[in-house]
Amino acid sequence: MKTILDSKLLSMHRSLYTLIITGALLLATLGVRAQDLASMLRLPDAGEDPMQIDFSTLPILEGEHAIISHGNLPWPFRNHNYLVWFGGRYWAMWSHGLRQEDYPEQHVQYATSLDGLNWTEAKPVVGPSPDKDFRYIARGFWIYDGQLLALASHDESYDETGKKKLFGPSLELRCYRWDEPTESWQPLGVMARDTINNFPPTRLADGSWAMVRRAHDLKVSMLIGGKESPQAWANIPLAIPAGSKFRADEPVLTVLPDGRVLGLFRDNGGSKRLYRALSIDHGRSWSEPLVTNFPDATSKFFTLRTSRGYYVLISNANPAPQQRIPLCLAVSEDGITYTRLARLPIPTAPQDFRPRTGVRKAAGLQYPHAIEQD
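Now predict its structure.
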Protein backbone atom coordinates (compact mmCIF):
# COMPACT_ATOMS: atom_id res chain seq x y z
CA MET A 1 0.00 0.00 0.00
CA LYS A 2 1.33 3.41 -0.95
CA THR A 3 -0.12 6.68 0.27
CA ILE A 4 0.61 9.83 -1.71
CA LEU A 5 0.47 13.11 0.17
CA ASP A 6 0.46 16.57 -1.36
CA SER A 7 1.14 19.71 0.64
CA LYS A 8 2.78 23.11 0.43
CA LEU A 9 5.92 24.45 2.06
CA LEU A 10 5.80 27.90 3.63
CA SER A 11 9.17 29.35 4.57
CA MET A 12 9.87 32.58 2.69
CA HIS A 13 8.44 30.86 -0.39
CA ARG A 14 5.80 28.37 -1.35
CA SER A 15 6.52 25.11 -3.13
CA LEU A 16 4.48 21.95 -3.64
CA TYR A 17 5.74 18.66 -2.23
CA THR A 18 4.69 15.04 -2.55
CA LEU A 19 5.40 12.42 0.07
CA ILE A 20 5.15 8.65 -0.36
CA ILE A 21 4.46 6.69 2.83
CA THR A 22 4.66 2.91 3.14
CA GLY A 23 3.67 0.68 6.02
CA ALA A 24 0.89 0.66 8.61
CA LEU A 25 0.25 1.68 12.23
CA LEU A 26 -0.98 -0.56 15.04
CA LEU A 27 -4.68 0.04 15.59
CA ALA A 28 -6.74 -0.15 18.77
CA THR A 29 -10.23 -1.69 18.71
CA LEU A 30 -13.06 0.56 19.82
CA GLY A 31 -16.82 0.14 19.79
CA VAL A 32 -19.11 3.07 19.00
CA ARG A 33 -22.61 3.57 20.39
CA ALA A 34 -25.14 4.49 17.71
CA GLN A 35 -26.67 7.31 19.77
CA ASP A 36 -23.46 8.99 20.92
CA LEU A 37 -20.07 9.69 19.41
CA ALA A 38 -17.00 8.76 21.41
CA SER A 39 -14.17 11.24 21.92
CA MET A 40 -12.36 12.08 18.71
CA LEU A 41 -8.89 11.63 20.25
CA ARG A 42 -7.73 8.84 22.57
CA LEU A 43 -3.98 8.21 22.52
CA PRO A 44 -2.02 5.58 24.48
CA ASP A 45 0.10 8.17 26.32
CA ALA A 46 -1.93 11.39 26.30
CA GLY A 47 -5.32 9.73 26.63
CA GLU A 48 -8.10 12.17 25.77
CA ASP A 49 -6.18 15.29 26.87
CA PRO A 50 -4.61 16.99 23.82
CA MET A 51 -2.53 19.24 26.08
CA GLN A 52 -0.53 16.16 27.12
CA ILE A 53 0.77 15.56 23.59
CA ASP A 54 4.50 16.23 23.17
CA PHE A 55 4.77 16.93 19.45
CA SER A 56 8.58 16.92 19.59
CA THR A 57 8.64 13.23 20.58
CA LEU A 58 5.99 11.84 18.22
CA PRO A 59 7.17 8.88 16.11
CA ILE A 60 8.19 9.79 12.55
CA LEU A 61 6.84 7.69 9.69
CA GLU A 62 9.06 6.43 6.89
CA GLY A 63 8.66 7.88 3.40
CA GLU A 64 10.08 9.88 0.51
CA HIS A 65 9.20 13.40 -0.61
CA ALA A 66 9.70 15.43 -3.78
CA ILE A 67 9.05 18.98 -4.98
CA ILE A 68 6.33 19.34 -7.62
CA SER A 69 6.65 23.08 -8.27
CA HIS A 70 9.06 25.66 -6.85
CA GLY A 71 7.68 28.91 -5.48
CA ASN A 72 9.98 31.13 -7.53
CA LEU A 73 9.52 34.44 -9.32
CA PRO A 74 7.67 35.56 -11.33
CA TRP A 75 4.97 33.31 -9.81
CA PRO A 76 6.08 32.73 -6.20
CA PHE A 77 2.78 31.60 -4.69
CA ARG A 78 1.39 28.03 -4.48
CA ASN A 79 -1.70 26.99 -2.52
CA HIS A 80 -4.82 24.76 -2.51
CA ASN A 81 -3.17 21.60 -3.85
CA TYR A 82 -4.98 18.39 -4.81
CA LEU A 83 -4.04 14.92 -6.10
CA VAL A 84 -5.70 12.18 -8.14
CA TRP A 85 -4.71 8.96 -9.95
CA PHE A 86 -6.18 8.76 -13.46
CA GLY A 87 -5.14 7.14 -16.73
CA GLY A 88 -2.01 5.55 -15.28
CA ARG A 89 -0.66 8.83 -13.92
CA TYR A 90 -0.66 10.92 -10.78
CA TRP A 91 -2.09 14.39 -11.28
CA ALA A 92 -1.54 17.43 -9.06
CA MET A 93 -3.25 20.82 -9.28
CA TRP A 94 -2.86 24.03 -7.30
CA SER A 95 -3.59 27.75 -7.14
CA HIS A 96 -0.76 29.70 -8.80
CA GLY A 97 -0.22 33.39 -8.04
CA LEU A 98 2.04 36.42 -8.33
CA ARG A 99 1.69 37.36 -4.67
CA GLN A 100 -0.04 36.40 -1.42
CA GLU A 101 -3.04 34.12 -1.84
CA ASP A 102 -6.14 34.90 -3.84
CA TYR A 103 -5.17 38.10 -5.64
CA PRO A 104 -6.47 38.84 -9.16
CA GLU A 105 -3.70 37.17 -11.17
CA GLN A 106 -4.16 33.83 -9.42
CA HIS A 107 -5.02 30.90 -11.69
CA VAL A 108 -4.79 27.09 -11.65
CA GLN A 109 -1.91 24.90 -12.84
CA TYR A 110 -1.31 21.15 -12.95
CA ALA A 111 1.47 18.60 -13.41
CA THR A 112 1.58 14.80 -13.82
CA SER A 113 3.84 11.97 -12.66
CA LEU A 114 4.25 8.25 -13.28
CA ASP A 115 5.70 7.49 -9.84
CA GLY A 116 4.60 10.35 -7.56
CA LEU A 117 8.17 11.63 -7.19
CA ASN A 118 9.20 12.86 -10.64
CA TRP A 119 6.84 15.47 -12.07
CA THR A 120 6.35 17.16 -15.43
CA GLU A 121 6.62 20.90 -15.90
CA ALA A 122 3.50 22.73 -14.82
CA LYS A 123 0.84 23.78 -17.33
CA PRO A 124 -2.40 25.74 -16.84
CA VAL A 125 -5.78 24.19 -16.17
CA VAL A 126 -7.09 27.71 -16.63
CA GLY A 127 -5.02 30.88 -16.93
CA PRO A 128 -5.56 34.26 -15.24
CA SER A 129 -9.14 35.51 -15.52
CA PRO A 130 -9.90 37.92 -18.38
CA ASP A 131 -12.26 39.75 -15.99
CA LYS A 132 -10.65 42.68 -14.18
CA ASP A 133 -9.76 41.95 -10.52
CA PHE A 134 -11.08 38.37 -10.64
CA ARG A 135 -9.21 35.25 -9.55
CA TYR A 136 -9.36 31.47 -9.82
CA ILE A 137 -8.85 29.13 -6.85
CA ALA A 138 -8.04 25.42 -7.36
CA ARG A 139 -10.80 23.21 -5.93
CA GLY A 140 -9.76 19.66 -6.75
CA PHE A 141 -10.08 16.78 -9.21
CA TRP A 142 -13.26 14.76 -9.63
CA ILE A 143 -13.50 11.48 -11.57
CA TYR A 144 -17.08 11.58 -12.86
CA ASP A 145 -18.56 9.00 -15.25
CA GLY A 146 -15.08 7.92 -16.31
CA GLN A 147 -13.93 11.45 -17.06
CA LEU A 148 -11.33 13.52 -15.23
CA LEU A 149 -12.73 16.88 -14.16
CA ALA A 150 -10.85 19.78 -12.60
CA LEU A 151 -12.75 22.23 -10.40
CA ALA A 152 -11.93 25.90 -9.88
CA SER A 153 -13.80 28.75 -8.24
CA HIS A 154 -14.00 32.20 -9.86
CA ASP A 155 -14.86 35.46 -8.11
CA GLU A 156 -13.85 39.04 -7.34
CA SER A 157 -10.68 39.61 -5.34
CA TYR A 158 -11.68 42.95 -3.80
CA ASP A 159 -14.68 44.49 -2.04
CA GLU A 160 -16.11 47.93 -2.86
CA THR A 161 -13.38 49.66 -0.79
CA GLY A 162 -10.56 47.95 -2.66
CA LYS A 163 -9.74 45.54 0.19
CA LYS A 164 -9.03 41.90 -0.65
CA LYS A 165 -11.77 39.62 0.63
CA LEU A 166 -13.17 36.12 0.58
CA PHE A 167 -15.45 35.95 -1.36
CA GLY A 168 -16.99 38.13 -4.10
CA PRO A 169 -20.72 38.26 -5.04
CA SER A 170 -20.04 36.70 -8.46
CA LEU A 171 -18.60 33.56 -6.84
CA GLU A 172 -19.16 30.37 -8.82
CA LEU A 173 -17.63 26.92 -9.04
CA ARG A 174 -16.50 26.05 -12.56
CA CYS A 175 -15.66 22.71 -14.14
CA TYR A 176 -13.10 21.63 -16.77
CA ARG A 177 -12.84 18.24 -18.52
CA TRP A 178 -9.54 16.65 -19.51
CA ASP A 179 -9.44 15.94 -23.25
CA GLU A 180 -6.81 13.29 -23.91
CA PRO A 181 -6.55 13.69 -27.74
CA THR A 182 -5.71 17.39 -27.44
CA GLU A 183 -4.05 17.10 -24.00
CA SER A 184 -6.00 20.11 -22.79
CA TRP A 185 -8.70 21.13 -20.32
CA GLN A 186 -12.04 21.94 -21.91
CA PRO A 187 -14.47 24.19 -19.99
CA LEU A 188 -17.81 22.61 -19.07
CA GLY A 189 -19.28 25.76 -17.56
CA VAL A 190 -20.63 26.55 -14.10
CA MET A 191 -20.96 23.61 -11.72
CA ALA A 192 -22.65 25.58 -8.90
CA ARG A 193 -23.33 29.30 -8.42
CA ASP A 194 -22.41 31.26 -5.28
CA THR A 195 -20.31 28.27 -4.27
CA ILE A 196 -16.78 27.40 -3.29
CA ASN A 197 -16.07 23.86 -2.11
CA ASN A 198 -13.22 22.61 0.07
CA PHE A 199 -12.66 19.20 -1.51
CA PRO A 200 -14.25 17.61 -4.59
CA PRO A 201 -17.51 15.65 -4.17
CA THR A 202 -17.57 12.56 -1.96
CA ARG A 203 -19.64 9.49 -2.88
CA LEU A 204 -22.16 8.69 -0.14
CA ALA A 205 -23.52 5.25 0.77
CA ASP A 206 -26.78 5.87 -1.15
CA GLY A 207 -24.90 6.64 -4.38
CA SER A 208 -25.32 10.42 -4.21
CA TRP A 209 -22.41 12.82 -4.39
CA ALA A 210 -21.91 15.41 -1.67
CA MET A 211 -19.65 18.36 -0.98
CA VAL A 212 -19.68 21.14 1.58
CA ARG A 213 -20.37 24.58 0.16
CA ARG A 214 -19.46 28.08 1.29
CA ALA A 215 -21.37 30.99 -0.22
CA HIS A 216 -19.81 34.42 -0.78
CA ASP A 217 -21.16 35.52 2.63
CA LEU A 218 -19.23 32.58 4.22
CA LYS A 219 -22.39 30.69 5.20
CA VAL A 220 -21.79 26.94 5.13
CA SER A 221 -24.21 24.37 3.68
CA MET A 222 -24.21 20.98 1.97
CA LEU A 223 -24.65 20.21 -1.73
CA ILE A 224 -26.18 16.81 -2.52
CA GLY A 225 -26.66 15.45 -6.03
CA GLY A 226 -24.41 14.97 -9.03
CA LYS A 227 -26.27 11.86 -10.23
CA GLU A 228 -27.87 13.34 -13.34
CA SER A 229 -25.03 15.71 -14.22
CA PRO A 230 -22.08 17.52 -12.61
CA GLN A 231 -24.29 20.64 -12.46
CA ALA A 232 -27.34 19.14 -10.64
CA TRP A 233 -27.26 19.86 -6.89
CA ALA A 234 -29.64 20.43 -3.96
CA ASN A 235 -28.60 22.77 -1.14
CA ILE A 236 -28.92 21.51 2.48
CA PRO A 237 -28.28 24.03 5.31
CA LEU A 238 -26.15 23.22 8.36
CA ALA A 239 -27.49 24.02 11.83
CA ILE A 240 -25.20 26.50 13.60
CA PRO A 241 -26.87 28.20 16.59
CA ALA A 242 -27.14 31.99 16.58
CA GLY A 243 -24.48 33.59 18.73
CA SER A 244 -22.11 30.63 18.50
CA LYS A 245 -18.39 31.50 18.47
CA PHE A 246 -17.80 28.59 16.12
CA ARG A 247 -16.71 29.80 12.66
CA ALA A 248 -16.91 26.84 10.31
CA ASP A 249 -14.24 26.65 7.64
CA GLU A 250 -12.69 24.13 5.25
CA PRO A 251 -14.93 21.15 6.12
CA VAL A 252 -14.24 17.52 5.26
CA LEU A 253 -16.78 14.69 4.82
CA THR A 254 -16.09 11.20 6.17
CA VAL A 255 -18.40 8.29 5.29
CA LEU A 256 -18.49 5.83 8.20
CA PRO A 257 -18.74 2.04 7.74
CA ASP A 258 -22.47 2.05 8.59
CA GLY A 259 -23.25 4.76 6.00
CA ARG A 260 -23.49 7.67 8.41
CA VAL A 261 -21.64 10.81 7.35
CA LEU A 262 -19.33 12.71 9.66
CA GLY A 263 -18.57 16.35 8.88
CA LEU A 264 -15.31 17.68 10.34
CA PHE A 265 -14.64 21.41 10.49
CA ARG A 266 -11.76 23.78 11.06
CA ASP A 267 -12.77 26.49 13.54
CA ASN A 268 -11.71 30.06 12.81
CA GLY A 269 -13.24 31.15 16.12
CA GLY A 270 -10.04 30.51 18.08
CA SER A 271 -10.85 27.21 19.82
CA LYS A 272 -7.77 25.44 18.36
CA ARG A 273 -9.93 22.32 18.10
CA LEU A 274 -11.73 20.51 15.30
CA TYR A 275 -15.54 20.47 15.31
CA ARG A 276 -17.78 17.71 13.97
CA ALA A 277 -21.40 17.12 13.00
CA LEU A 278 -23.23 13.90 12.14
CA SER A 279 -25.78 12.93 9.48
CA ILE A 280 -27.73 9.66 9.63
CA ASP A 281 -29.71 10.26 6.41
CA HIS A 282 -26.95 10.56 3.80
CA GLY A 283 -26.31 14.27 4.33
CA ARG A 284 -29.95 15.45 4.15
CA SER A 285 -29.92 16.69 7.76
CA TRP A 286 -27.18 17.32 10.30
CA SER A 287 -26.65 17.52 14.03
CA GLU A 288 -25.31 20.73 15.52
CA PRO A 289 -21.50 20.96 15.07
CA LEU A 290 -19.79 20.36 18.42
CA VAL A 291 -16.21 20.95 19.53
CA THR A 292 -13.99 17.86 19.84
CA ASN A 293 -10.81 17.19 21.79
CA PHE A 294 -8.74 16.90 18.60
CA PRO A 295 -6.17 19.76 18.54
CA ASP A 296 -5.59 21.92 15.48
CA ALA A 297 -3.35 24.80 14.43
CA THR A 298 -6.37 26.37 12.66
CA SER A 299 -5.40 25.08 9.25
CA LYS A 300 -6.84 22.96 6.46
CA PHE A 301 -6.81 19.19 7.02
CA PHE A 302 -7.85 16.03 5.18
CA THR A 303 -9.29 12.59 5.98
CA LEU A 304 -9.09 9.39 3.94
CA ARG A 305 -10.49 5.89 4.35
CA THR A 306 -7.92 3.36 3.17
CA SER A 307 -8.49 0.10 1.31
CA ARG A 308 -7.71 -1.73 4.57
CA GLY A 309 -10.70 -0.07 6.20
CA TYR A 310 -9.01 2.28 8.64
CA TYR A 311 -9.08 6.07 8.47
CA VAL A 312 -6.25 8.59 8.44
CA LEU A 313 -6.46 12.28 9.30
CA ILE A 314 -3.63 14.50 8.06
CA SER A 315 -3.39 17.87 9.77
CA ASN A 316 -1.25 20.43 11.55
CA ALA A 317 -2.35 19.16 14.95
CA ASN A 318 -0.03 21.27 17.11
CA PRO A 319 -2.15 24.18 18.45
CA ALA A 320 0.88 26.36 19.27
CA PRO A 321 0.41 29.92 17.88
CA GLN A 322 1.87 31.37 14.67
CA GLN A 323 3.02 28.07 13.18
CA ARG A 324 1.81 24.94 11.41
CA ILE A 325 4.49 22.48 12.48
CA PRO A 326 4.54 19.50 12.36
CA LEU A 327 2.28 17.94 9.76
CA CYS A 328 0.82 14.89 11.47
CA LEU A 329 -1.02 11.72 10.53
CA ALA A 330 -3.61 10.27 12.93
CA VAL A 331 -5.15 6.80 12.56
CA SER A 332 -8.63 5.56 13.45
CA GLU A 333 -10.23 2.16 13.09
CA ASP A 334 -13.79 3.49 12.94
CA GLY A 335 -13.47 7.05 11.60
CA ILE A 336 -14.71 8.46 14.92
CA THR A 337 -11.90 8.03 17.47
CA TYR A 338 -8.25 8.49 16.48
CA THR A 339 -5.94 6.32 18.58
CA ARG A 340 -2.49 6.85 17.03
CA LEU A 341 -0.63 10.04 16.08
CA ALA A 342 2.69 10.41 14.24
CA ARG A 343 4.71 12.99 12.34
CA LEU A 344 5.17 12.82 8.59
CA PRO A 345 8.80 12.69 7.37
CA ILE A 346 8.88 16.06 5.65
CA PRO A 347 11.06 19.17 6.02
CA THR A 348 10.09 22.34 7.83
CA ALA A 349 12.55 24.48 5.82
CA PRO A 350 13.82 24.58 2.19
CA GLN A 351 15.85 21.50 1.29
CA ASP A 352 17.90 22.93 -1.57
CA PHE A 353 19.77 26.09 -2.47
CA ARG A 354 17.79 27.25 -5.48
CA PRO A 355 17.23 31.02 -5.24
CA ARG A 356 13.65 32.05 -4.59
CA THR A 357 11.71 35.08 -3.52
CA GLY A 358 8.18 34.47 -2.40
CA VAL A 359 5.55 35.00 0.24
CA ARG A 360 5.31 33.98 3.84
CA LYS A 361 2.45 32.93 6.05
CA ALA A 362 2.61 30.56 9.03
CA ALA A 363 5.69 28.34 8.89
CA GLY A 364 5.44 24.67 8.00
CA LEU A 365 4.05 22.25 5.43
CA GLN A 366 0.28 22.61 5.41
CA TYR A 367 -2.99 22.29 3.43
CA PRO A 368 -2.54 18.54 2.81
CA HIS A 369 -4.33 16.26 0.39
CA ALA A 370 -3.71 12.52 0.00
CA ILE A 371 -4.66 9.51 -2.10
CA GLU A 372 -3.95 5.79 -1.76
CA GLN A 373 -2.52 4.05 -4.82
CA ASP A 374 -0.79 0.64 -5.15
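The longest strand covers residues 134-144.
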